[in-house]
């Protein structure tokens, strides 16, 4: 637990210290979010805050991995345990860079979708894959029937990671919303991993899941100092999709495989708010004949603003909804492994 706490603090401090420097660089490079009819803010705000978040995650993960490396019996054993997480971070780096390119010079929705699906395929080369699902016949491991997905694992894993990456980007419409929701989801995944490590006596890969989740939560928390209303910098497409990609990958390694009886329900609850918002958007656009990828100003947060709430009030309410769903997910997870 001390290691997990240290990772969280290291990631938080790293992002906190780097964000002002990233902000200055983004301004010099002209990477600004210009207000328009769909935006909530009224003056240009620099993007590329995702770079500071990325740095916090990397430094935090490296600190945690170094600690585990010192405890490993050999280099081979350590690399075997850390292989999935190193791969997740490497592919996540590509997601960040393409997103930063989109922040500078917008890419088409089709190009973004294609790259995120490609990233979802690439990370499977490192063993990050939904190998099967469980028929929930009961709340315990021995009461669940495992069904292998076979070759369907490949497209379904890519689709899941794409959906989480994109929905995290979609809810990044108010100051601090995506960063806060990401931190809440990361905390939930970390708690689940620590529970699994303790109750199932399975330290690996659960310690590594907890380390990565703590790094994500810390980096998102450090960024909130500058991103909460009134925001001084945005994480941009790069930051939002990087967070979504990392969290989606972690859920594949952890929640989908560990909590067998609730393997589908738990990850959906962890990402409940962005998934709900994205689902409503798809239905809304389909019913009105709009292209599904076409942005609008009718997301949940926009509707709350229309009802007279301030940005801060809206974000805090949505934090509460995301936290409530995460708590239910953690409780279900504990029941599944208890």
Summarize the structure.
With 338 residues, the protein is mostly helical. It is built from 13 helices and four strands.
Describe the secondary-structure layout.
Elements: H1 2-29, E1 32-33, E2 45-46, H2 50-71, H3 75-104, H4 109-122, E3 132-135, E4 145-148, H5 153-170, H6 177-199, H7 203-227, H8 236-253, H9 255-258, H10 265-270, H11 272-288, H12 300-306, H13 311-337
Antiparallel strand pairs: 1-2, 3-4
Helix pairs in contact: 1-2, 1-7, 2-3, 2-7, 2-8, 3-4, 3-8, 4-5, 5-8, 5-11, 6-7, 6-8, 6-13, 7-8
Structural summary, described in words:
Helix content is 71%, strand content 4%. The chain has one domain. The chain has helices at residues 2-29, 50-71, 75-104, 109-122, 153-170, 177-199, 203-227, 236-253, 255-258, 265-270, 272-288, 300-306, 311-337; strands at residues 32-33, 45-46, 132-135, 145-148. The two termini are 20 Å apart. It is mainly α and 338 residues long. It is built from 13 helices and four strands. The model has no long low-confidence stretch (mean pLDDT 87). The protein is globular, with a radius of gyration of 19 Å.
Relative helix content: over 70%
Q: Please report the number of helical segments.
A: 13
3D shape:
globular
Count of discrete domains: 1
Find the structural class using helix and strand composition. Answer: mainly alpha
Which blocks of ≥5 consecutive residues have pLDDT under 50? none
Quantity of strands, as a count:
4
Q: N-to-C terminal Cα separation, in Å?
A: 20 Å
CA radius of gyration is: 19 Å
- Order of secondary-structure elements: HEEHHHEEHHHHHHHHH
pLDDT average, as an integer? 87
User: Approximately how much beta-strand content do the residues carry?
Assistant: under 5%
